[in-house]
Amino acid sequence: MKIRRILEKGEKMNSSDKELEAVGEFLVNIFKDIGNFAKGVFYGAKELKKGKSKIIILIILIALGIGLFLMKETVWSIIPKTDRFKPLKYLVYIAPLIPLIYLYSLGNQHDKSRKSFDDMFEKIGFYGKGVD
Predict the structure, then answer these.
(1) Are 39 and 69 in contact (CB under 8 A)?
(2) Is the overall model pTM greater than 0.85, yes or no?
(3) First to last CA, the chain
């Protein structure tokens, strides 16, 4: 509220106000991104109904993610011990998220196709019910 009041009056913000505004924008963007990811996963889960192959791929990815996580010691022994490959050790911890990433990608494809239809309808001047 203080920042809006400062901006409305035309006063200059000091550095602490700028930092506070940056932190606020950062938090808002994080919550928006989490919401967009959850929406993508939801739409991706709805897309699973459209084909058996998508369900089979999801099952394979779930098995892969769980397997990589449970066998992390074996995976770590395969990775060379040099400093350049050290960050690869920690990728094993995000392996259980592989199925969620797949669902998110399915959901994004659905969202893109919906937007392209909306754009095509707008170009020809077709509007749905309730739009003036």
Answers:
(1) no
(2) no
(3) 36
